[in-house]
Design goal:
binds 3-isopropylmalic acid, 354 residues, ten-stranded mixed sheet, two-stranded antiparallel sheet, alpha/beta, Isopropylmalate Dehydrogenase, homodimer, globular, 13 helices
Chain lengths: 354, 354
């Protein structure tokens, strides 16, 4: 199997965690006789510094020519004074648009070895297995008009969705639910927002095509509490861009750290893979970052772009073993404890376990 | 002290929990020789049924003539097919606009007696004391244009804020932080939204006027996780309408039930008081609802409209005593346990403890 992977390591801890993911992918290639090639390109703050723009054309070209794009993280406090369209994050939003993937899959599974780290009780998090399907190309993130007029002091953004945008994402949610436990929870704020009413009606309209999937609707405010009170009740959670951003981050509470969460964005020209965590500039370059989110993201590359399910499972198993053996970066060390491995040591451990 | 209180009990469990809050207010009046009068008026689904509109003019008149408005809950599944502007919730949004209060104060305090109910570990929730200041009259809730065009299948909403809207709410946040632990956490999505950039810049501009308050900014996605991981780190949390809706509900995880959370909306012509929970149509009329959110809301009436701090504290103390004695409605009974009191019994117990 050949895979040409574009590597957009980005800012902060992006490069160090991505390096570990690449290391693991190389091991998988070697064991399985696969041919994975890696092409680096700039995005985010490092691209602004080097090229004056958060997403240089060269990066777009490299990404569009690849079979999969592996992204690290984007964001740097240095650019906080810039307007959203000039910031590192604009590069992330633009690459998402160029690649065209609209369904951002964010699995949240409880790791038994980490159950002591979660602020939630172990009996609440045990066996949680949720798959968020976050719409990634619509809503407030991209809607126009948008502006902050410093003269008048008025700012506005637009939340906008079309029915086809909702449909294509909902179909992915239903199909994934069919392959999992057959439940789809659609989250919105339909008691206030017209956009949410479109979402709810569209999902209800499609539902009869998937008679084996049980659909429920939740309001985003209630969902924020249900997700913590009874996370095991959820299977596939389908929602629009901003709600998906908030709820999938919140689900990091279940593993105890955002640093454990991977994601894959499918449905476009080229799939985009990125850990859910951010660039964490405060710990960047110190070997403190948790590479497991990136490594689990590499597993998603194999699963969704390489059709290498067995290899993906092997990575996930290796991660579990390393955790069971007690290896910890700071974010998953537990209350009052400190890391006993560095970023690259953690990557090596997973590599060896493979 | 005289207080003329408009009572808008609304839908679902609204009437039963409000009745208990009124009972408690009457006891306070009797003990303290105060003169509280109560005027009922319709809102929400019951108003649609009786008068064809979720907010009749009569209700607006009663509310505007009052010293304080005590609201129960609004929302009824019967009206789910209606567009947002015709639904029960439209009555709630409209009364908020008529009264003009823009700062919705939502305290979240951990009740020691309930610590076993939270899915969070007791050591995480212990002594939590957060005050959300949610902007209540702006953002996506009221922004125009807004529409769901069923012909074209497109829907849009507008998030909009002006600098004065942010300023007036921020000043309240800072002033409350001064009286509390001196920390203000402003929550936004400034890495993507222009509206959020306005919020962040405005709060930073005002901050020097409150040198004794420490300001920090958090992104809403990160905040959803911090709020569960380290809730004790937060004092006043200031944010826009939708983010405040989601985060304050999420904070219900800390007490283990939304049914415990009160709110007060200040800054307008007449203050509006409402528990954070919804109308819970599934348990309405069965004596299962938890009246403590409404009763604690009554305490906020005394505090913010009556300047009766001592009486407010007395109610809060009575609630703590009743909880310590083990009295529970279903929502706070704890995993696998059931209620040992009804809604009105709970109200009576607080009344007696007073
Ligand atoms: C960095 C930011 C623009 C991004 C988002 O909000 O989509 C991040 O929070 C994420 O969830 O991938
Ligand atoms: C019922 C609904 C319109 C309302 C809101 O979103 O403001 C409720 O969730 C609340 O928080 O008071």
């Amino acid at each position: 199997m050949k895979l040409n992977i574009a590597v957009l390591a980005g800012d902060g801890i992006g490069p160090e965690v991505t390096a570990e993911a690449v290391k693991v992918l190389k091991t998988v290639a070697k064991h399985g006789g696969h041919e994975f090639t890696f092409t680096d390109a700039l995005i985010g703050g490092v691209a602004i510094t080097a090229e004056g723009t958060p997403l240089p054309q060269k990066t777009i070209d490299v990404a569009l020519a690849a079979d999969a794009v592996l992204l690290g993280a984007v964001g740097d406090n240095k650019f906080n004074a810039l307007t959203p369209d000039k910031r590192p994050e604009a590069g992330l939003l633009a690459i998402r648009q160029h690649l065209g993937g609209f369904a951002n899959l964010r699995p949240c599974t409880a790791f038994n070895a980490l159950s002591e780290n979660s602020p939630l009780r172990p009996e609440v998090t045990k066996n949680v297995d949720i798959l968020f399907v976050r719409e990634l190309l619509g809503g407030l993130y991209f809607g126009k008009p948008r502006a902050w007029n410093k003269e008048t002091g008025e700012a506005h953004n637009t939340m906008v969705y079309t029915k086809p945008e909702v449909e294509r994402c909902a179909h992915i949610g239903f199909q994934l639910a069919q392959k999992r436990r057959g439940k789809l929870t659609q989250v919105d704020k339909a008691n206030v927002l017209e956009c949410s009413q479109l979402w709810r009606a569209t999902v209800d309209e499609i539902a009869p095509q998937y008679p084996d999937v049980k659909v429920e609707h939740q309001l985003v405010d209630s969902m924020a509490i249900h997700l913590m009170n009874r996370p095991r009740d959820f299977d596939v959670v389908l929602t629009e861009n901003l709600f998906g951003d908030i709820l999938s981050d919140e689900s990091g509470v279940i593993t105890g750290s955002l640093g454990m969460l991977p994601s894959a964005t499918i449905g476009g020209k080229v799939n985009l893979y990125e850990p859910v965590h951010g660039s964490a500039p405060d710990i960047a370059g110190q070997g403190k970052a948790n590479p497991l989110g990136a490594i689990l993201t590499a597993a998603m590359v194999l699963r969704h772009s390489g059709n290498l399910e067995e290899e993906a499972l092997a990575i996930e198993k290796a991660v579990n073993e390393v955790l069971a053996a007690g290896h910890r970066t700071g974010d998953i060390a537990g209350q009052g404890k400190s890391a006993n491995v560095t970023t690259s040591e953690m990557g090596d451990l997973v590599n060896t376990a493979l």
